[in-house]
């Protein structure tokens, strides 16, 4: 993305970038290092309210909640990234082929896409998870599959829009190969639109991943997860409300960040065109 | 009528495809039922015998037809995990029977809340030119999309259950014992499902009304001397409600899906909770029937919305 000439930085973009940046940073650092051990228990520090020492307080085993949130955020970031990579690249491939060539493949893919989009995505996820059983890889695989149609749709419509553009016709006339037209001439031009759906995809992946681990059918211990923390914390809502608020608000924070970010990109695109 | 028939045929085709997909997903892919019943230590003879008994040696098409016939006749199969007594496993139909009303009432209360709150709110939002209301509702809509449903449920529990003491979290009242108490307990789970949908519906209705207010007939209505009230409620609202009906249809599908999570948060013994626990214990017959059931409900609601849309707006011509 060129910085000059493509519209100015706006406040949505700035706020979104700051919020997601902070969350991603904490998550990535959390994979390697946390301020306190996430497993060491301490009976003396059970249910400490948030303080300078433990900024999010401590849980029922006296573990530092901030450290555990960092670790959980790490899991979420890794899983969502892989889900977006998987469904995004499958979406690009299918969307490019169906949008550019049309035909029978297009017909079949669109029918399936429509069918999947028509249903609440949680149902299909549950079907896949119940067959594969829970765990990290299966969460990534099932969410990856479920989110493919949303990308296919957007990529396909962009390829349809561009396939008869003048510069593409000219490239065809000059004898440029099909694959080169698809992925070198058209693909770079859809990224401004594609980014928005990647951001939305990130959000959906984060919400779905944490929802599944909340229900106990997502990642399994020892993998840390924000959803699992929330479901543990629910039992102590009366005595230690901060235990539930910390992972919950962290999810809201990162999702809101991505939402603002995508809104920022959308507005910038609008201003350009 | 022609349209209705066409939709009906599509409905039947979709139901057929979904049942085939469910059959493939739960009867073919998960592998050998026999191993899961007998364990890995059984003799090959015993395995073969059970396979014959369960009809697993028949061709897939025949197995599918048998399965569909059983389901249509109300024989939903037996759970792998729950037993009725020492010798018998629990039939799935019995397992679902007393849990279904909980989910249905939860969905009904949620939908009622959405309609009762969102429609007046949307009208008010469209009519007012107050920037304050605009800002507040705009923020609520944005925020409700960022708050996951299970966290919203926990927030509702904390705010209304623990701080304000409007209800006692975790003290579910069975509908068989005390129906009024049951509905009262459902109010807050339903509210957790409804809040984001209220924001979405109100926003949708507002946009729909603002579009309608630009229409020519509104100017005509004013010029023939209708009052603002009459134009708003007699003309604009009626037309603006049409897309909202379709929108509500989609919302119903989401309520059904949303109740799976919310039942877990509030400890409601509905089919959503049963579904999750059956997935955890890999109780395939139960999962299969529940998924099939929920999918059918969603498809059927879409079908009804299509038909209803025709009925309330006869202008949509039959092509």
Summarize the structure.
The complex is a heterodimer of chains A (273) and B (319). Chain A has nine helices and no strands.
Molecular structure report:
With 273 residues, chain A is mostly helical. The longest helix of chain A is centred in the last third of the chain and has 38 residues. The two termini of chain A are 15 Å apart. In chain A, 45% of the residues are buried. Chain B is built from 13 helices and two strands. The model of chain B has no long low-confidence stretch (mean pLDDT 83). The interface between A and B is large, with 35 and 41 residues.
* Cross-sheet strand order for the largest sheet of chain B: 1-2
State the helical fraction of chain B.
over 70%
Termini gap of chain B: 11 Å
Name the quaternary structure.
Answer: heterodimer
Largest sheet of chain A: none
Strand tally of chain A is 0
H and E order of chain A? HHHHHHHHH
Q: Largest sheet of chain B, if any?
A: 2 strands, antiparallel
Rg of chain B is 25 Å
Task: Please trace the helix and strand order of chain B, writing H or E for each element.
Answer: HHHHEEHHHHHHHHH
Strand content of chain A: under 5%
Low-confidence regions of chain A? 1-5
What ranges of chain B have pLDDT less than 50 throughout 5 or more consecutive residues? none
Distance between the termini of chain A: 15 Å
Which descriptors apply to this entry?
heterodimer; A: 273 residues; mainly alpha; 9 helices; 73% helix; elongated; disordered N terminus; B: 319 residues; two-stranded antiparallel sheet; 13 helices; 76% helix
């Amino acid at each position: 993305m060129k910085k000059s000439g493509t519209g100015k930085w706006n406040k949505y973009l700035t706020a979104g970038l700051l919020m997601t940046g902070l969350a991603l940073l904490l998550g990535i650092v959390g994979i390697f290092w946390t301020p306190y051990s996430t497993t060491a228990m301490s009976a003396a520090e059970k249910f400490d309210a948030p303080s300078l020492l433990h900024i999010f307080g401590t849980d029922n085993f006296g573990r530092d909640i901030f450290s555990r949130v960092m670790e959980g955020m790490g899991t979420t970031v890794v899983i969502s990234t892989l889900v977006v990579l998987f469904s995004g690249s499958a979406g690009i491939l299918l969307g490019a082929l169906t949008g550019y060539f049309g035909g029978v493949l297009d017909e079949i893919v669109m029918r399936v896409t429509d069918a999947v989009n028509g249903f609440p995505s949680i149902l299909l996820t549950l079907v896949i998870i119940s067959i594969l059983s829970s765990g990290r890889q299966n969460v990534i695989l099932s969410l990856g599959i479920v989110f493919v149609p949303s990308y296919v749709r957007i990529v396909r419509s962009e390829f349809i829009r561009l396939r008869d553009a003048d510069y593409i016709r000219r490239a065809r006339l000059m004898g440029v190969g099909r694959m080169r037209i698809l992925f070198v001439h058209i693909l770079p031009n859809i990224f401004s639109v594609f980014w928005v759906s990647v951001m939305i995809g990130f959000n959906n992946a984060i919400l779905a991943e944490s929802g599944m681990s909340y229900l106990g059918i997502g990642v399994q211990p020892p993998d840390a997860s924000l959803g699992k923390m929330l479901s543990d914390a629910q039992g102590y809502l009366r005595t230690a409300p901060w235990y539930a608020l910390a992972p919950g608000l962290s999810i809201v924070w990162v999702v809101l960040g991505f939402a603002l970010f995508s809104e920022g990109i959308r507005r910038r695109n609008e201003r350009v065109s | 009528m022609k349209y209705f028939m066409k939709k009906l045929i599509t409905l039947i085709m979709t139901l057929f495809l979904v049942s085939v997909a469910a059959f493939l997903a739960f009867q073919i892919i998960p592998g050998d039922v026999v191993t899961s019943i007998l364990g890995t230590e059984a003799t090959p003879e015993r395995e073969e015998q059970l396979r014959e008994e369960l009809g697993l040696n028949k061709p897939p098409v025949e197995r599918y037809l048998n399965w569909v016939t059983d389901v249509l006749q109300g024989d939903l199969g037996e759970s792998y995990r729950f037993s009725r007594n020492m010798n018998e496993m629990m039939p799935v139909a019995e397992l679902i029977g007393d849990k279904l009303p909980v989910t249905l009432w939860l969905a009904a209360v949620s939908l009622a809340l959405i309609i009762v709150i969102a429609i007046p709110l949307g009208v008010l939002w469209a009519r007012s030119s107050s920037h304050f209301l605009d800002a507040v509702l705009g923020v609520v809509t944005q925020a409700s999309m960022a708050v996951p449903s299970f966290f919203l449920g926990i927030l509702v529990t904390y705010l209304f259950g623990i701080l304000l003491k409007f209800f006692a979290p975790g003290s579910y009242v069975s509908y068989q014992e005390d129906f009024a108490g049951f509905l009262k307990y459902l109010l807050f789970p339903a509210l957790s499902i409804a809040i984001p949908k209220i924001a979405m519906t109100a926003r949708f209705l507002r946009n729909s009304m603002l579009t309608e207010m630009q229409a020519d007939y509104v100017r005509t209505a004013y010029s023939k001397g209708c009052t603002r009230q009459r134009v708003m409620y007699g003309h604009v609202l009626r037309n603006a409600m049409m897309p909202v009906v379709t929108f509500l249809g989609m919302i119903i599908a989401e309520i059904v899906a949303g109740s799976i999570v919310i039942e877990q948060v509030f400890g409601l013994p509905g089919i959503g909770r049963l579904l999750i626990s059956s997935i955890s214990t890999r109780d395939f017959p139960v999962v299969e029937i529940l998924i099939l059931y929920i999918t059918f409900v969603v498809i059927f609601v879409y079908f009804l919305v299509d038909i209803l849309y025709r009925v309330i707006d006869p202008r949509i011509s039959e092509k």
